[in-house]
Design brief:
Blueprint: H1 2-15, H2 19-26, H3 30-37, H4 45-55, H5 59-62
Helix pairs in contact: 2-3
C-alpha cells in the first residue's frame, strides 16, 4: 500500500488541505489519516470510496492499479 500512501499525500497537498481537514471532511480521525500517509494502516473499503469521491479519482488510482 505504499503507492496509496504516496498518492494520498500528493492529492491532499495538491488540494492544499491539512490532514486534519481531510479527516473532518471524510468523517475520520486525524490519527487514521496520519497512519494512512505513513503506510502504517490501510483504509477500509468505505473510506477508499470517500477518498476517491473527494479527490475525484478512482479507487484503482488510489491503490496504484491505474495511473489516472
Amino acid at each position: 500500500m505504499e503507492v496509496f500512501a504516496k498518492r494520498l499525500v500528493k492529492l491532499r497537498k495538491e488540494k492544499g488541505i491539512s490532514q486534519a481537514q481531510l479527516a473532518r471532511t471524510i468523517g475520520s480521525s486525524l490519527s487514521i489519516v496520519c497512519y494512512w500517509e505513513t503506510n502504517k494502516s490501510e483504509p477500509t473499503a468505505p473510506n477508499l470510496v470517500k477518498l476517491a469521491e473527494y479527490f475525484d479519482v478512482s479507487v484503482d488510482y488510489l491503490l496504484g492499479r491505474k495511473e489516472f
